[in-house]
Design goal:
The strands form 5 sheets. The protein has a 9-stranded mixed β-sheet. Strands 21-20-19-16-15-14-23-22 form an 8-stranded parallel β-sheet. It has a two-stranded antiparallel sheet with strand order 5-10. By secondary structure, it is an alpha/beta fold. It folds into 3 domains: about 110 residues, no CATH class; about 200 residues, Class I glutamine amidotransferase (GATase) domain (Rossmann fold, 3-Layer(aba) Sandwich), CATH 3.40.50; about 325 residues, Glycosidases (TIM Barrel), CATH 3.20.20.80. Helix content is about 45%, strand content about 15%. It contains 23 helices and 23 strands.
């Protein structure tokens, strides 16, 4: 592949020279040309929980801007009140629900001085008014998938993605208040149908989105932010161009374009796709030359746009030189429990099978809710709207030779009907923290709760031909629970002595070691009971129902922190396999996690790492997913599970995997 390599090498050298020259200029002039500020919600949030969520949204947007090379500062609401926006050109409010009047006055002053605001999901009508908008009413989705993406229209700035995927369960839209404002993007449902609900509205004073930015579709959201912000601050394109030039060719394990071309060329030798891959690499070389020339002419948007095309081609080349592995377990977690297209499981089944997947972990059973015809726990609204989701999933999956593992959320009542939670509270069956606060989690040591969990699982085993039961939340929330009176009584009974200074003695005092062991024993007891139940019941005749669990990555630390001794479950054959949630963007961290997990007793062939494709902790691009799967194979794991079944997985990840790693 000499020609492609030479072209890429020449392009890389030229581009690097321009980048180094530009980087110093940008660094020197950055503070004088603009100041981009993110405002973290503090005063504007109702309570500590809301402040925590606001902080997470701030961190996410900040990370996306960093990845694109956009320099910015992060301040809080108090700093806005103190006048720290004066030198800024754009202020981003990722989640600032109800700014107090003193902050509104500061924001109004900022806008009057020419500053622009980018506001997400605020509930303050005065804030909308000062931006020349009118705040609408809060709307909760009536069906899952009601707001699954948003599409930009002709009024949007150039270079925004046409469609961005995001499943939002509620929105708080703003509307144009006069002819100077306009809707630039509307929501779409899960079928891709355009809705009238505004997703983005633009006024002379900035932009307003009707929800927060969630973690999914990270690449398109980064591009969207650059295009929207770059329309107000053109110098952002210069910064991003420098970053794109510096990162061009960074794909999978390769650090630059020369490295990538050399490595991919070597991997392609003798492969069926060698000629096609070499052609892609040659195009990458041409694209790099175009980028370098555009950078020299200070056409920064062209640099970014061409860099995105180059990266797409390079990822495809990397994907096509991969090889499938026989006898490998390939699973996908479906968090909604409704498939990609609610009401159309056959389509989801075909998509997964065509992508080379082998199993779907369908989230249809919680501690207080079921997406199927249950007589044990309350049925969800989805059952009345779409029908029995487990039955439909099984039919579609088995028709496409996919396994179905029922994803069972243990103990957690966060989506159970209020009446069900109230009944559990009245019966004294909820967990209690060390400070006496009740949690909407069932106490694992309460016999009636254990019986409820087993009865729900038994119902599934005896009425549906499932391939597996997949336990999740099979743990405590953290080390601050459970310290209810029932736990105290049952723990004391096992010890054979009276407990004083409760809960301190059990959590951090002289009994903490024994209490931690007792807690983990309660969780292990449920796992053991599910194991025994699956072996002695069920409608399956041709093969055994497999028991698995989604587990914390940090073993053995999770034994004391959340009572999850999954190493013991493997050792004692209580589970057939575990899926550690190894959610990270770091290849080194990922490798180390897998190495330690596979070194546990009886772990061989029974650890299928979970990849955080669109997890809160990590968002992975296609080449990152490919590289992590390569690492699972190199480490000796016999499978993997992807989180989560959504549009990003459907449109970006699965097609890349099918090119090589999961090719039929």
């Amino acid at each position: 592949m000499e020609n492609a390599y030479q072209k890429c090498a020449a392009g890389f050298s030229l581009g690097l020279i321009f980048y180094l020259t530009l980087a110093g200029t940008v660094a020197a002039d950055r503070e004088k040309t603009f100041d981009l500020v993110i405002v973290q919600g503090t005063l504007s949030m109702a309570n500590a929980g809301e402040q925590t969520y606001a902080r997470s949204r701030t961190k996410r947007i900040s990370r996306w801007l960093q990845d694109f090379g956009l320099v910015h500062s992060v301040v809080d609401d108090e700093a806005v009140v103190a006048g720290q926006l004066k030198s800024a050109q754009v202020a981003i409010l990722p989640y600032n629900s109800l700014p107090p009047d003193k902050e509104l006055r500061a924001l109004e002053s900022f806008v009057k001085q020419g500053g622009k605001l980018m506001v997400f999901y605020s509930a303050e009508p005065k804030l909308a008014k000062l931006m020349g908008l009118k705040l609408g009413s809060y709307q909760a989705s009536k069906v899952i998938g009601q707001w699954s993406s948003f599409a930009f229209n002709k009024h949007a700035p150039p270079l925004v993605p046409k469609v961005v995927y995001q499943d939002s369960s509620n929105i708080l839209p703003a509307y144009p208040a006069d002819k100077d404002s306009q809707v630039i993007a509307c929501w779409q449902n899960s079928a891709g149908k355009d809705l009238a609900d505004p997703a983005w509205v633009q006024s002379p004073h900035g932009l307003w989105m009707s929800h927060v930015l969630l973690d999914s579709d990270a690449v398109n959201k980064q591009r969207m932010l650059l295009a929207l912000l770059g329309a107000y601050v053109p110098s952002l394109w210069e910064q991003s161009a420098a970053r794109v030039m510096a990162r061009a060719g960074k794909v999978g394990p390769f650090i630059n374009l020369n490295d990538a071309v050399t490595g991919i060329t070597r991997m392609a030798r003798g492969a069926t796709a060698e000629e096609f891959v070499n052609a892609l690499l040659a195009q990458c070389g041409q694209d790099y030359k175009i980028m370098s020339a555009a950078l020299a002419k200070r056409k920064y948007a062209e640099v970014v746009e061409t860099g995105q095309r180059l990266q797409t081609k390079l990822v495809e080349a990397f994907a096509r030189v991969q090889h499938p592995k026989n006898q490998e377990f390939r699973g996908v977690w479906d968090h909604t429990g409704l498939g990609l297209y609610p009401g159309n499981w056959p389509k989801t089944g075909r998509i997964l099978a065509d992508a080379g997947m082998h199993a779907v972990f369908v989230n249809v059973l919680w501690a207080g809710l079921a997406h199927y015809d249950s007589r044990v726990v309350p049925q969800s609204e989805a059952v009345s709207r779409y029908g029995d989701q487990l039955k439909q999933c099984l039919a579609a999956a088995h028709a496409n030779h996919l396994e179905v593992h029922v994803w069972k959320i243990c103990w957690n009542l966060s989506n159970a009907p209020e009446s069900f939670v109230a009944a559990m509270r009245k019966a004294g069956r909820l967990q209690v923290t060390n400070t006496g606060k009740e949690l909407e989690w069932l106490c694992p040591s309460h016999p009636d709760n254990v019986a409820l969990e087993l009865k729900a699982i038994s119902e599934v085993l005896n009425r549906y031909t499932v391939d597996g039961i997949h336990l999740d939340y099979v743990r405590y929330p953290d080390n601050n629970a459970c310290f209810c009176n029932g736990c105290r009584r049952r723990f004391a009974q096992q010890l054979g002595e009276k407990i004083t200074d409760w809960p301190k003695s059990a959590q951090s005092g002289n009994l903490s070691s024994k209490y931690n062991s007792w807690r983990s024993a309660q969780i292990t007891a449920l796992v053991r009971a599910v194991h025994d139940l699956a072996r002695n019941s069920g409608v399956q005749t041709s093969k055994r129902v497999r028991i698995s669990a989604a587990v914390y990555q940090g073993y053995p630390g999770c034994i004391n922190s959340i009572g999850q001794d999954w190493g013991r479950w493997l050792k004692e054959d209580l589970v057939d396999f575990v899926c550690p949630m190894d959610y990270t963007t770091s290849n080194d961290v990922f490798k180390d996690l897998i190495r330690r997990q596979l070194a546990l007793a009886n772990a061989g062939g029974r650890v299928f790492p979970g990849l955080g494709v669109t997890a809160m902790e990590s968002q992975l691009a296609p080449d990152q997913v490919i590289e992590q799967i390569r690492q699972t194979r190199e480490a000796g794991a016999d499978g993997f599970v992807l989180f989560d079944l959504n549009r990003t997985l459907e449109h970006d990840i699965l097609p890349a995997l099918r090119m090589g790693l999961t090719r039929p």
